[in-house]
Each structure stands twice: as structure tokens, then as C-alpha cells.
């Protein structure tokens, strides 16, 4: 019975984590470049139960040998194994703002497992390495540097900060920034062959142990940079709401099982124990 408590409780914890993940997805449905998280729920390793007993060798002898009878397998609960972002391309939404730049491209699977690569803007990280993001909702700071909404510097293809005289500039579809009829620099776009190896952080940033290669040097990679657009979140709000309802129902079912175990244990202690 006590094992049942742990099994039901593990189901409640797993569904609570899924609900928190789905709530975060829904809260970022309007965040440019946001990639929805996906969860995988896995059962704990099964336990194989056997009944241990002694079997008599013969009726005339008291000798016996130990034997075991297979009872069957029992699950010990579930847990959320991992949460991984879905890097599927989001729709583009026109904003008309010069500093808004969206990445757009169809990338074929790049690994033997059929995983599709992804491209990211390169963001300066003063602590360690670079950060990567799909959020192209940029702005210019007081010094004319192209920055993210959080004030971090956007880097060019050479790994330098991008400084402009004003927000009156143009970005070609191959990433070149032009101002006053002169080429300034090229946007830094990195390519991740397996984006699942990236570590997701706050504010839509991803990090990588090492440095991702430039997307401009990858053979067969085709993408465009679209000025005046942002990439919308790839969260499907109606599907997310449905999954939230299913997670809530599953949590509620485990809760009722837990209550049933509690009532049974109460009777065993207070009623049966008196007899």
C-alpha cells in the first residue's frame, strides 16, 4: 500500500511539472522567436516480484530446497525525463520596424537520427562564450549599438559589436547591413547541427559548450534575414490548452488514487487495528 502512495505521488509531480511547462509556453505565445518546450514522461524501472518459499524434497524427509515463483512486474511510478525545445520555424509577422530582423529558412535534417539543424543570432555574453537566440526584436542603444531587448549586444559575422549611426539602415536577405549607401557589416548568424545540444536559459537565450560555426560557411544551408519582420512563437495555443487540460485531469486522477490509499490505510490502522 505504501508503494502505491509513492506511485500516485510521482504521477502528480510529473503532471505538475508538465503543467508548469505548458503554462510557460502559453505565457510566451506572443514572444518573438520563442520555441515551445516539449516534455517526455518516462516510467521508473520496473521491479520483478518473486515469491520465495521452501519446497519439500519428499514426504518422508524434512529436507527442503528454496524455490521462487514469479509473481510479475510492478511499476514504481513516472517522472519527467527531460524538457526539450521544439525548434520548428515560426511564422513571420510584419512590424515595419527597421531594427526588427527575422531569420527564415527551411533546413533539411542534418544528422543520421533525422534531427533538423537550426540557425541563431549570435549575442555577446560577458561571462563566458556567446549566447544564441531566435528573437530578432532588436533596438539601438544610446551609443548606436544593435542590442537585444535585454540590452545585450548583437554580434556581426566577425564576432564584433554592430554600431550604426541611426536606425535608418537596410538589411539584405543575405545578412549584409548597409547605411548611407555603404556596407557596414554582416549579421552574425550561427548554425547548430543538433540544436538539442544547446542549453536553454532565460529570456529565450541558448548557450553551447564551445562555439557554433557561422551559418554562412555551411554548404547547402539556405536562409534569409528579413528586415521589418519578427519570427512569431511556434506555440500552438489551442493544442497547449488541450494538453494542459489533459495534464490537469491526470493530476486529478492520481490525487483520487492517493486519497483512496489514505482512506484504506486509515481503516487498516483505526478499524482493523482495534479488532
From TrEMBL:
Localization annotation: Bacterial flagellum basal body
UniProtKB keywords: Bacterial flagellum, Cell projection, Cilium, Flagellum
GO cellular component labels: bacterial-type flagellum basal body
InterPro entries: Flag_bb_rod_N, Flagellar_basal_body_rod_CS, Flagellar_FlgE/F/G, Flg_bb/hook_C_dom, FlgE/F/G-like, LlgE_F_G-like_D1
Any one biological process term the GO annotation gives: bacterial-type flagellum-dependent swarming motility
Domain Flagellar basal body rod protein N-terminal: 5-35
Domain Flagellar hook protein FlgE/F/G-like D1: 115-177
Domain of life: Bacteria
Residue stretches making up the Flagellar basal-body/hook protein C-terminal domain: 227-270
Family as reported in the entry's similarity comment: Belongs to the flagella basal body rod proteins family.
Name of the protein: Flagellar hook-basal body protein
